[in-house]
Write a structure and sequence with these properties.
- By secondary structure, the protein is of the alpha+beta class.
- Helix content is 63%, strand content 20%.
- The chain contains nine helices and eight strands.
- The strands form three sheets. A three-stranded antiparallel sheet has the order 3-2-5.
- A hairpin with a 2-residue loop joins strand 2 and strand 3.
- The longest helix has 78 residues.
- The radius of gyration is 64 Å and the shape is elongated.
Length: 324
């Protein structure tokens, strides 16, 4: 009897422990757990310790709320200008609604991947190769917009879409390289022509500015010479005025002559010429006196000769008287 009671107690303890064990559901910080009760959705468990009814509730799925990356398989697509290229990419997404992600789509990862492939094919078919290569950011934005609107019903939030690689056929690549080379050469030619044009313009402007500056310099020089002449004339006029006023003084004329002699002697003394003679002022006065005496003597001789000629020459009256 005692053994039977002990067995019953132990079985009860084990059963209670099992019930408690299966009633506690611990969820990780980065997970969401879908609980079904009797085959129907009941609730979504978040991180921490959660209580469920054992043998009635069971875990349908465990989903991660971390951001996930899904590859877009490489596929061959045709652009608007009929160029066949191979494109692949990646999608970054996260679970926004765990219930919709489980019950609205069979496999949200495969659904998103296939939707991205068809959307990518449609978007690339509407644009040319040059636009794809030059506006990859615009293509990424269009893909993100299309995928986000479609994935919203699946409880998925598309974070971003990136085109990873665009493979172009070798002949198209060669043609593009030649085109790029031609564009670079064209740009270089345009830059050289622009630089030459700029050089010619600057040289013309410099020559024009030089002529203007020279003309301004000539004008300023003429104006300066004009002012100089005016000032010199004014100074000469004032000097002549002062000289005229000084000449009224008996000693003024003598002062002016002495000053001019001193200036002349200064210039003569400063000259480098070896053929120069300095004669005292008294000697010049004596020479002047001799020249005056010479002139007087010449005048007297001329007068005497004239008187003798008048005496020796007979007049008309004398001739008439003699004939009578």
């Amino acid at each position: 009897m005692f053994v039977s009671i002990m067995f019953f107690v132990i079985a009860a303890i084990i059963a209670v422990g099992a019930v408690i064990y299966f009633s506690i559901q611990v969820v990780s910080q980065s997970d969401l757990v879908i609980i079904e009760r009797m085959g129907r959705y009941n609730r979504t468990l978040t991180s921490g310790m959660n209580l469920i009814f054992p043998f009635v509730d069971h875990v349908r799925a465990t989903l991660s709320i971390q951001e996930e990356m899904i590859d877009i398989p490489k596929q061959s697509v045709i652009t608007k200008d009929n160029v066949s290229i191979a494109v692949d990419g990646v999608i970054y997404l996260k679970i926004a609604n765990a219930k919709d992600a489980i019950y609205n789509v069979n496999n949200y990862k495969d659904a998103i991947s296939h939707l991205a492939m068809t959307t990518l094919r449609g978007e690339i078919g509407e644009i040319s190769l040059d636009e794809i290569l030059s506006n990859r950011t615009t293509l990424n934005s269009e893909l993100h917009k299309e995928l986000e609107s479609a994935a919203e019903n699946w409880g998925i939030k598309v974070m971003r879409v990136e085109i990873a690689e665009i493979s172009v056929p070798s002949d198209i690549q060669e043609a593009m390289n030649q085109q790029m080379k031609a564009e670079r050469e064209k740009r270089a030619t345009e830059l050289r022509a622009l630089a030459e044009k700029e050089k010619i313009i600057r040289e013309a402007e410099a020559a024009k500015e030089k002529e203007v500056l020279e003309a301004e310099g000539i004008e300023r020089m003429a104006e300066a010479r004009k002012k100089e002449k005016i000032l010199l004339a004014t100074g000469e006029m004032e000097s002549m005025k002062l000289i005229s006023e000084g000449m009224q003084n008996p000693l003024g004329g003598e002062y002016m002559l002495v000053r001019e002699r001193i200036r002349a002697f200064e210039q003569l003394a400063g000259s480098d010429s070896q053929n120069k003679f300095i004669i005292p002022y008294e000697t010049t006065e004596m020479l002047g006196s001799l020249s005056v005496i010479k002139d007087l003597m010449s005048q007297n001789v001329n007068q005497v000769a004239a008187s003798q000629m008048s005496l020796s020459t007979p007049t008309i009256e004398d001739v008439t008287t003699t004939g009578s």
